[in-house]
Each structure stands twice: as structure tokens, then as C-alpha cells.
Fold this sequence. Notes:
Layout lengths: L1 E4 L2 E8 L7 E6 L9 H11 L3 E7 L1 H4 L8 H16 L9 E6 L1 H13 L3 E5 L14 H5 L5 E6 L13 E6 L10 H15 L5
Parallel strand pairs: 3-4, 3-5, 5-6, 6-7, 7-8
Antiparallel strand pairs: 1-2, 2-4
Amino acid sequence: xxxxxxxxxxxVHLDLPxxxxxxxxVLGHGAGGRVDAPDLRAVRDATLDIGAVVARVxxxxxxxxxxxxxxxxxxxxxxxxxxxxLSGDSSYADLxxxxxxxxxxxxxxxxxxxxxxxxxxxALAFPLRPPSRPDRSREHELRGAGVPVLxxxxxxxxxxxxEADGGVTVRTLPGETHALSKDPAAVGETVVRWLGSQLPGDx
Length: 203
């Protein structure tokens, strides 16, 4: 489906679980990537089995065929509009909301989690700092999410790996790079274990 946002139409790929829904999980893509990245597909497949309604959102700039990402404020604005639309749907309004994504999408999810009323953030390949600018840390985005955050990064991620602290849980996967594509199933399993512990009745 397409959802109108202030920055143009966003495209949503929606997957429903085989059993009764327990959570709405909305995921965003990386800066130059799409929602069919191996790690995003793996998270979708794994979380469907625990009752997640999974919505993967393509930002308007990607829907328009551009690879260069929009400015951060525009990404946040379009994402907020899309997630608000999905979480307000009568079919999902009573479900707890979790947001996330990979790389740039993880940053957007962290920056908007509190505003959207999300209960948890799943941050795949969180780009801690640009490889060419190690002094420009984005750690404040993780700490500012205001809700529990799971970071899943490869141990060889050229963007660095955040440290666990407070509400931020970090899982580092051996042999993986920023792409998280060598063993996507392990990414999905990691997310399921953590996300399941955040859902009502699973503690």
C-alpha cells in the first residue's frame, strides 16, 4: 500500500502473522537500500512466528526512484506520518508498537520512538559513526530513544559498534559486517529472543 506523507508517498509492505497478532513492528531501510535487505527479511520471517504484524516502510525518496537519502528531518517526518497511519488503523490500534530498521532506518526509529509512543526499538547495523569521521558519534540517538533498544551489529562493522548501557542492549554477531548478510537467520533469532521479552506476558 502507499501512504501519503508530507514528503510524498511512502510504500508499505505488510505481512500478517499466522496466529493472533501481539505486536505491530514497523521497520525502515538503509540509506541506499530497500526493504528486501537480507536482515530485514530475516527479522520479518522470524517475528511473524511470534505474532508480529510486520510493516516495512519505503521512504518517499526511494519510492520516487532516488538513491541519495533525504535530509534527516524529512526522513523523520515521512516515517512519523507512515507509522502514525499504521498504528492508528483499527486492526492494529490496540497492539503495542515496536519500531526499527537497518542503518539509517535504525537512526530514524531511535529519533522518533518517543514521539510515536513505541515500546521498543530494533536497531540493525546501527551506524555509530561515519568511517571517515570517527569523531562524529551518533550514540546520543540511541540514548535519546527513551525506550528499550536492541542493537544488532556485525563485529566487523566499519561504522563501529555501540556499547551497551542502560536501556540499550547490544548483540554483536561474529564475522558479520555492516551488511549483516552472512547469516541473516541469526539476526532474526536475536531479534525474536529480545523482542519476545519486551511483549506483555513474556517477562
